[in-house]
Structures
1.
Amino acid sequence: MPLVEIQDLKVSFSQYGGEIHAVRGISFSVNEGESLGIVGESGSGKSVSCSALLRLLPATAKVSAKSITLDGVDVLKANKEDLARLRGRSAAMIFQDPMTAFDPVFTIGHQIAETIQSHRKVSKREALAEAEQLLLRVEIKNAKDILTYYPHQLSGGMLQRAMIAMALSCRPKVLIADEPTTALDVTIQAQILQLIKKVQAEFGMALIMITHDLGVIAETVDRVLVMYNGEVMEQGPVQQIFDAPQHAYTRTLLASLQTTFEPSRGDGSAAPALELRGLAKAYRIKRRSGFFTSYGDFHAVRPVDITLPRNSIVGLVGESGSGKTTTGMMAMRLTEPSSGQILVDGVDITSLTPDQLKSHRRSMQIVFQDSYSALDPMMTLTQIIAEPLHIHGIGTTREQTEKALGWLERVGLPRSFGNRYAHELSGGQRQRVAIARALILGPKVLVADEPTSALDVTVKAQIIGLLKELQAEMGLSILFISHDLSTVKSLTDSVVVMYRGRVVEQAPTSAIFADPQHPYTRALLDAIPASNPRDKRERTFLAAADLEAQTPRYTVIQTGLAPNATPQLVTIAPNHRVEAIVTT
Amino acid sequence: MIFYILRRLVSVAVTFIVVSLIIFFMMHAIPGGPFDANDMPVSAAVREKLMANLGLDQPLWVQYTRYMWGVLHFDFGVPYQSPGETVTQLLSRAWVPSLVLGGLGVLIGAPLGILLGMAAALNRNTWIDYLASTLATLGLTIPVFVTSMLLILVFAVWLNWLPASGWGKPERWILPITAYALIPLATYARYTRSAMLDTLNRPFVTVLRAKGLSERRIVFQHVLRNSAIPLVTVFLPMFIGTATGSIFVEAMFRVPGLGAYFVSSIEGRDYPLEMALMLMITFMYCIAYLLSDIVYALINPRIRVGGTP
């Protein structure tokens, strides 16, 4: 008998204006020790199905099924005691955002220990000792200290490890991982996925991996369930799904993994569209000691030089905290730099007053990651898109509206959307509106700050396509900020890699992927999930200290520079620069 | 933490001085004086003598410095309307009923309000929630003098169970305290409900359920503790604010408390008493906010423990 068996599960939510059918009659089963991947886009019902398995859905959800059994218990008929046994002991869950998944007012140790104590009669001391052992099993080195930490004191990656330790605490028979790495950096994602595979083998658990990312699926599971709009499109062994997809939707999903790249025309002869010279940002931080306050500097961005040639796309890549967004914001003068110069189209805009800057803003625009909060909820789409024209006093109101409607079509939305509001649109549609608003003034430079990272894979591919198309049409120069190297690969002409506020490598995209020089670039590339289960592999991960130790070395003869123990950017090939130590 | 408290105490002192300045000069900005002709028909010479005796002929800043110097020595002067005693004596006499009324009112109303708010949040969109929300809204929107009158009408006039007014014996306390308790009850119920609902919707509650914790433990240990963080900043100041009682409730039930003096001291230009009352309120609120900030830091590890170690 399978460990998990779901037959004809239907879930609907009653809302104002009718019912939403989130899951429409799906069936699947998971055997002991097996790993099943459920892949689908947001709203496909993949998370809802697994929440139904543990009866975690809110009271507004209507659940019906022929049968839902977990570990031999009929979940739909389970009483309080059964549920308490099912949750945590038969099945444990890990969630998407580890930052919000812990109760902020209790220590990590307390939260793991209380899980153990709620399932077994042990003393607090024993429970804490066990929690420490669990933290060691998830490769947390200073486990004893971590027990006494509060969630806000730990990074996302550490918290997700602690969350896994907590899930393991009652030796569950199945581990349900609901997008466990979506909120994490690429390098951390690779570590967490490998850890999940490792503990699954060690504890002999079954695994249900819920994700929108086919790469995660390729890395972790044996069998795949493809969901779309509350229904199972296709299921089968992972290799078969990747090699011989039966359903059209599966093929679309897979197609979004395959990327083609055409370089943009570029225009090397003319002055660069955007040039950042020694741009840096330091924040003052307060340190309190007694009655006195001292100030220190936090260097978000060390002096960086980035050149965005006319009519081309440059990718700015790095993990959270690397300073890439700050750099983009400074380039737009939305954050004031501490030092350095910003040249847009050859004009130094670093010290322009707000009045002088206003006319320059026409040639520099930005698109943000979170399209929902970037669009005014009280304005119609036409108003939103036409607002830049209004601000710069271009044309009559009628002309502005006409132009906005034209742009709506140009970004692939019907004109009839003009009177709608942002909340009526999907994430991809909202991002299209944001792009239209940014481009209606005909800017020369566009900063795109992670415009696709909140989107589903198929939508992401569409937005990338749109940006590429508009870039070619308008001769735009785009600074594309992303944490995701695989997105960058299909879009940009060259890549700048940032790490801890510094540029560590910059090179044409092909060179970065074929011949990465800096250890951090290599780590980033290595962390990209496989695009086919055949390619999955064990990875070794470097700590920050290892990265420093592996900083490349070049001799005086190779570089023509004086020897220097401090790493500096060294040109090693045309347009390829890497941070390295120059030795004799 | 100790330095934090010390720093806050310094800022309390500054606040206190600024507020006392504003009050003092506003008080004297009201036209007229304590010995105006229509109140006290005395000759001009006598009036001048009186003013000189009380130091009211001095420039304002001299009067202010003198008064505050007295305050530093716990000397709040002599009330003009009752020259037989000092302001301190008057206050300690009149404050007792106000303290009992406000204190018992909030001690009864606050816990009931919190329980009501919890019940509403945990049974969202059921009749319990609707009943609690209706009660809370009524309690907040109906002025306290209307509820006082209703209470008197029902329990004193119609049912004749309780005396309508006065203070002497404990059975006379019941109606005014009930009337007063409705205010914190309604406020606390509303705040508690929304804070609990906010917490219940946070992702970690789902995680706690998925861990297999009992619902009781989730609510009483996790949800309550998290909801308490935003609530202390509202509740503590309110709690201490009540120590001055309610002018309206005291007037409706003829309680011989502080309330009446707030009005009479302003009307009669009774500067020492007015100043003392205002300083007292300022002081209580300063302490209340200080306490609530300290408690907030204590129960919130993000403040108490700080960032990455």
2.
Amino acid sequence: MAELSDLLALYRRLIAARLRAQLQYRTSFALDSTGMLLISFIDFLAILVIFANVPQLAGWTLPEVALLFAITGLTFAFTDLAIGHLDLFPQLIRDGNFDLLLIRPRGTLFQLLTADFQVRRLGKAIGALAVLAYALANLRIDWDPGRIAMLLFIVPSGVVIFASIWVATICIAFWSVDAREVSNAFTYGGQFLGQFPINLYDRWLRRFLAYVVPIAFVAYFPALYILDKPDPIGLPEWLRFASPLVAVAATFVASAVWRIGVRHYQSAGG
Amino acid sequence: MSVPAIELEHVGKDFVVRRAVGRFRRKTDVVSAVTDLSFSVERGSLVGYIGPNGAGKSTTVKMLTGILVPSRGRISVAGLVPTRQRTQLAQRIGVMFGQRVQLWWDLPLIESFELLRYIYRIPPRTYERNLSTFRRLLDLDEFLRTPVRQLSLGQRVRGEITGAMLHDPEIVFLDEPTIGLDVVARQRVREFLLSANRERGMTVLLTSHDLTDIERLCSRILIIDRGRLIFDGDIDTLKARYGKERVLVVDLEEPGPALQLDGARVIRIEGPRQWIAFDGERLSAAQLTAAAAAQAPLRDLTVQEPEIEDVVRRIYQERA
């Protein structure tokens, strides 16, 4: 426990320092945040266009899809906010600057995750929150304690799932130079696929999202519970409550992959 | 007997290098950066670790600091196995890479120090004491509140050295600590390292291209070439073994042919000036001067002692 509170205190200090540094560039900060907000509205516009042509999408109404969109968007925005700088990790490996994490008396993954904080990505979260408000206003949900609890748990466990996918895939950088592209395919691609009901997809992709890269646990399964909706593809009911467990499992997998990667690190320059 | 600060036994490090053969096939080569290295460093010593580019210097330092896993052999630093006990070791060593920025680029220097204080869990009293000592010795006060990205190279290096030593490390690894510094800054860094070594008993392992650094600071020199240790001893031994050749420079009254002298040879002629190399152990400068004066009238003369640069160059040449 003492160890954990020590880490949290250190995290708070590192983030505060990053914030001070980022606020030196106010204009670019404002521009970026606005840009992010616009992007998330344009993404939602695409969904509105679909529903202007069809009343339902694979058995889901507009407010229901909006709920999926908002949960996925919010989750991804928070992940991006906290660890979006992982995009730069392959560069860190290529330049050999990962060395600098290895000479400090703290875990390398902890140092990497806490190295920065992308406040400018808040724009994305605000966009997603607006869509969430729209969805909740247009859905008739019976808010019992279980559903309220689910709504509160959904985002943290989704963030952990996304972060684990991000970490596990960015580890490719320990072996190959094109890690960023591959990793983005899983993270940004996962975010895109997660915005829609997975029963829309082909069987292999559904299985992939449910069992391999567990994007379906970010929004789809929890949303089925909140909406009290039968699963169109008939997967077991307990999967709806499995997101926190999946998050824990994903964390273990990601940190194992990370450890193997670090051991494989070759540094740069003889 | 206490445990040595650093100990290596038959350490080697291979890198797997992949290169394209044709369009799709790739061939993997194994390149040995460090072949077979054994040495130990006593606590409290100041050791210079030198070698040409690609000799395996950085690879060794990276293995000693827990960055790279050795392919074979045994390493112990401060009694710990670097890669297996990495975080414990990091707490007890200081590392500075002259060509890397370890401080926070867009934060004022003092804020970097504050962060390091928590990263290394430095007790408040230690932190205050060390910071005030380093501020004085390295003259940090005028740029303590300047963002690191705005510091001059010399200022930044002084900041980096402070950052690497705030947590009272027992052993310090400095890779090119004076690279790119002007004469004044270089001198200041040297004096600082000497005092840290003398007053705190800090073990220092230093790599440098600038052999004057090594000569001024280090009581012991390790020379590595192609992944092997080729010399281990102090400066005087180094000079005695490889620098027996002294040079007598004579100015003749007027230009003439090369002087013919037993046990010596003329290595260069420029007008009336001739450079005569001789073995300092077999011939004295006085004997040689007398022999030269017998052949041609001399106007002036000087004896050049071997420079450490020449000595090292000669070692590499001998082995090439």
3.
Amino acid sequence: MLILQCPYCGVKGEETEFAGGGEAHLKRFGPDSSDDDFHAYLFKRENPKGVHLERWRHTNGCGKWFHAARNTVTLEVYGTYSAQTTEPPKDIKDKISAKVPGWSWREFS
Amino acid sequence: MSTRLSNGGRLVNKAHAMEFTFNGKRLKGYEGDTLASALLANDQMLVGRSFKYHRPRGIVASGGEEPNGLVNMGRGETFEPNQRVTTTELFDGLEATSQNHWPSLEFDVGAINAKFSRFLPAGFYYKMFIHPRPLWKHVYEPFIRQSAGLGKAPKDKDGDKYEHLYAFYDVVVIGGGVAGLMAARAAGAAGAKVLLMEQTAAWGGRTPVDGPLYSATVNDGPVDKFVDELVAELGEMSNVDMRLRMMGAGVYDHGYLLGYERVNDHTPKAKGPRHRLWRIRAGQIVTATGAIERPLSFAGNDVPGVMLASAVRDYVVNYGVSVGDRTVVVTNNDDAYLTALALKAAGLDVPAIIDARAAGAGVLAEKAKAAGIRVETGKGIAKVKGGKRVTGVGICAQAGEGSALEEIACDAVAMSGGWSPVVHLWSHCGGKLLWDETQAMFRPDPEKAPTGAAGEAYVSTAGTASGELDLGAVLADAEEAGRAAAKAVGKTPKKAEKPTAEGVQTNVIQPIWMMPQGANVKLRMKSWLDYQNDVKVSDVQLAAREGYESVEHAKRYTTLGMATDQGKLSNINGLAILSDALNQPIPQTGTTTFRPPYTPISMASIAGEARGEIFQPLRKTPMHDWHEANGAYWEPVGHWRRPYTFRQNPGEEISAAVKREINQTRGSLGLLDASTLGKLIVKGPDAGKFLDMLYTNMMSTLKPGRCRYGLMCNENGFLMDDGVVARLDEDTFLCHTTTGGADSIHAHMEEWLQTEWWDWKVYVANVTEQYAQIGVVGPKARKTLEKLTDADLSAEALPFMAWQDIDFGDVKARVFRISFSGELSYEIAVPASQGRAFWDQLLEAGKEFGVMPYGTEGLHVMRAEKGFIMIGDETDGTVIPQDLGMQWAISKKKDDYIGKRAQARSHMADPERWQLVGLQTVDGSVLPDGAYCVAEGDNANGQRNVQGRVTSTYYSPTLDRGIAMGLVRHGADRMDEVIEFAKVDGTTVPTRIVSAVFYDPEGEKQNV
């Protein structure tokens, strides 16, 4: 059971306090998008062995959504950050690079 | 025979005798006995039958690895199957019965399977019963089911108490042997908050048993004295908690650890819980879990009386119980010599030590010879003689094919195939293993420990669990593990304790996976690997021949290690046989996955206190007590309880009550407690824009004071919720959701606001429980309310689909003119605290009209009569609004809403989609719920094709006939067609497709 820190209320909580929300930084495709783009937006997801960027919600706490950068193999949590962003912040990316040189995740590295 | 010796038994208190029964037989034991030692003391070697062949099986081990000794315990509310005799402490009045046999333990019909065992190899069930298919259902399955299963499931509710406990420690040490004690002392001395747990009832582990046999000393004193001193020293440390009878059950992410404490198993009448599940967060976990001895694979190694060598000496030393008068020891390492020495010291006969190694043992061999024991090297056991009890062994050359050189009469065999460190807890959360060629064991790879939140290693091993077998090395390793753990949690370790230990020089183990080396197939078919699931050497070899090369596949094909002991004795031997058959080194084969719990824990401990009323909190509306007192027949709706109907007297039929409520509501006046409906306030300058995205229809154009029914879809286009939206003022909306949707729709709104449109100025609040909501329904609704207020309630002042704030005396209410029944209807929201009082006022005011509260079933029937959909009935997560003919609720003017793009996908626009229609049986009967509409032909599985299904079906009191709604292939174009719905008895019901609005299609009754 993971321990995560909510970047909004600052509480360090047990995994049961949070709810996972799948892959982070999805770009929404709306009415005029192509079938391929829309299909990918709905169904295609990263399933990495290693660095992963995820959405979480502090469901049984402050209720805020946030992002977590973590490693699915070592279970290391590189950091949690705001949900109101389209990419991981530089300090988090640097932290991942220090631990996993040469990492990449979708368009981020 | 096995019996109690007149002396010995360091753990039993002979001053305190205890009585217990086994299969009804009254037997005697002592305080401190396990059920296993007490049974053996009474010459009860045979304890059960194996799973597949029903072979007679005896006790093999002395700890949690025991595969055979599983019994039913207790009776009635304390009955529990599959209790392990080796880990069950004896208590006065204990009742145990053996399991998996019929009619009796001594004589078992299923044992006939063993005679056919050559026809029942691995994968037999898969191969045999797959064809012909019908035979499986009617012949094979019923037969197999009857003979399957270990133990009986309890019938009564568990009468004991269980609890959870949350705990936080810097360092948790698992295992109270000498290594665990050392590690805990080192961590404790550094000032860390430490928990030390031991699964048995005694500290010290194997050391106090084995040490004295080879005269081990620590700091020049006897080793058992050293253990006592460590325990005393730890007891003095205020920062160290010590728990006996507590097992480390599982290690999980980020230092999460489950401890399973058997508080009162041994004192069943004592106060307090039976089991306590510790949910621990540990900074560091030190596993000092020791090792488990491996059996040797020789023919007849499952005959009762063949035991692990370590178990044989445990019974002698700890319990003063001899498992046999004449015990042959067979081994591939030095350790088993200790068993021979222990037996000899207890005055028992050891006819021979059979050592498979050509070179034999070191110092211990000299000791054994000096004690007068015959030692044979380079030899093995060809075969064990005996059925329900060992009568002798045939010995052979280990290098040969099994021709017996000599037969030795004996009534017990003590075997040792070497030791495997208990790496389970290390492995649960990702710790990796190394194959140690010299010691022939998998041991933890300290470079690849499980890692925590900061990428730090949080599990370490100490002593034998690390793969150390020499006493001095064990102590040094454990001291270092304790110090390192303390350091890792920020403590400063004291100067290392370096006790001087004198152990014994041993010769290296020789891996023996098959005995003798060239055993023929007849012998291999009698060489058991997994005792509980009856897996033999020949089965694993067959699996390899048939192409099951992965250890995980071979495991599932043969069922090796899949029994309740999870292969603690069998796994290493099995994968060694597999490696040999595949001609590859053992590390290449690898182990199967170690999963928690380490040994089975009670289901009740997992449930803890969450039973009965406190299993789940119950949500109650403000009128709940009135319902309770007035004949409510409850229906669970999410966490709520809603009245399904109200019975006027306990004898009233449910269907009659529903019919009465509907007739009275349609004829005069009904009341509905609608408080459970979700109520979400959506507020802000962008609220209208936000709701336009959430609902399929346009909400931003709604005028304050007005209501609009809306549909909400998910991004896949599927309908997920519906409800009436009221605009309270320019930037405030009140969104009603379904009862079940209140929390999920609130979460849905938050998700989009926080993660997609975070710059929109909107705020959402869930006020569901702040209001009681009451539906005042029926032709007399207006007249009733007019008695309670001077406000103008006329159709002109408060028309259909409008709302107003109205005071009823001192009750400030919000009145919505909306209708889910088709009648003149007011839904009135009042502060929750005034809900009950207002409900009472309405009952009083409505008396003259025969007011009648109605329940959820009346609500459902009346909405179905009107053709209104119900989320979860007409929708199931695959239905889009277009399927329901609700195009009128989908705005054409909007560029976008959640689900719009998905509804344009090709399959969504398919004209063959099933569409909502009304259904009316030709004979007026009520269609079965969920019935399918049959079509011509069969599908690929030979089943009848279908073209639709029933989504809602009721008896309509208003129309006095069955009415239904359903989804039928392009049903909207098929009005008046008669189609056939299947019943479970195979017949079909002719049914006409009609409009879904059965009652008052013009809406004349509601719009008055």
